[in-house]
Amino acid sequence: MKNLHVIASVNPSAGGPIEGLKQLNKVIVSLGHTVEVACLDAPGSPWLRDFPLPVHALGPGKGFYSYSKLLLPWLKSNASRFDNVIVNGLWQYNSYAVWRALRGGSVPYYVFTHGMLDPWFNRAYPLKKLKKNLYWIWGMYGVLRDARAVLFTCEEEKILARQSFRPYRVNEVVVKYGTQGATGDLATQKLAFLTEHPELVGKRVLLFLSRIHEKKGCDLLVDAFGEIVKSDPSLVLVMAGPGQTGLVSRLKSQADNLGLSDKILWPGMLSGDQKWGAFAAAEAFVLPSHQENFGIVVAEALACGTPVLISNKVNIWREIIAAGGGFVEDDTQEGTTRILQKWVGMTEVERSSMRVQARTCFEQNFEITKAAESLLDALQANKS
């Protein structure tokens, strides 16, 4: 099977969908299939050098919409080389160009929405919703309606997507999604991370590792941590990830005002051994998001045997509860404080048991080989 993925950018700072694309297709290639990627990055972008798949950079895409006049003619010339074309993401030119090039043709295309139909965005950005309503009618609805299938990474995402826009008539297919987990020795990676950050040695580390964005509930976490650290001064919060300078500055000021300047570490974006070392060094991973389609970082934490403390707006929360791999609460100040209190109030025996359950949750639900097989099965089942 020859698959083409089309995405606006493969810049890793864009978050989980990029990491998911790389890991998922590494396995698919190992199973004997061919995968290429077309993106709207500028040729020569530094993140292209080490990208693990053949990539066609057809940008630079202009503006938020990432328009490039090169993509549509490239698709028309090259789509026949592939058995399937898979769009990653909505609201940008890559999805519209695939629709223009392939609708009604012999090469089927599929769409991964990656949570971009979640109704949270409409509530959080009402002015953007007005623009999206127009774009929905003009083009985006057609993109989804005419796709061979619209792919969702969990049942919750599929259900939420039905609530955002009208009309809505698509072929819904839920596929497994996940991650490979740590590459390398976790004990060695933990040591490397603690060597880089010796102030964490001997501390009880809680880890946030994601984009620092308003939808992630970072402000809730800082306030909740300010409450919980009073009960145990050995607690430390690591806030790792790329973010907008203005938001990071506001969060740091918030922490300073709470007297937490020596209790919160801001290491920026972590990758490779440092990322896995952070997961291994942490007692628990915390993500009180207001919206999270899947949360690849949640699966990565579970893969390391690190329990997860998440909101019920992280769409895989049902799987976490069922497996006992962590705690789930509302995405409110009270809920975030409560979830930290639950963790801190556990005995060491209880925490050890939950670490085992966290790893089991990963193996049963989010292991990357199962995810790759699920996608291949969906492509085959919807072939005609």
Provide tags for this entry.
alpha/beta, 15 helices, 384 residues, 7-stranded parallel sheet, 2 domains, single chain, 6-stranded parallel sheet, 16% strand, 13 strands, Rossmann fold
Textual characterization of the structure:
With 384 residues, the chain is an alpha/beta fold. The protein folds into 2 domains: 2-178 and 368-381, Rossmann fold, CATH 3.40.50.2000; 186-365, Rossmann fold (3-Layer(aba) Sandwich), CATH 3.40.50. 44% of the residues lie in helices and 16% in strands. It contains 15 helices and 13 strands. It has helices at residues 16-30, 71-78, 93-102, 120-124, 126-145, 155-161, 186-196, 218-228, 245-257, 272-281, 296-303, 317-323, 333-344, 348-365, 368-381; strands at residues 2-7, 34-39, 55-57, 84-88, 109-112, 149-152, 172-174, 204-209, 235-240, 264-268, 284-287, 308-311, 326-329. Strands 3-2-1-4-5-6-7 form a 7-stranded parallel beta sheet, with helices on both faces. It has a 6-stranded parallel beta sheet with strand order 10-9-8-11-12-13, sandwiched between helices. β8 (204-209), α8 and β9 (235-240) form a beta-alpha-beta unit. α2 runs parallel beside α3. It is globular and about 65 Å long. The model has no long low-confidence stretch (mean pLDDT 95).
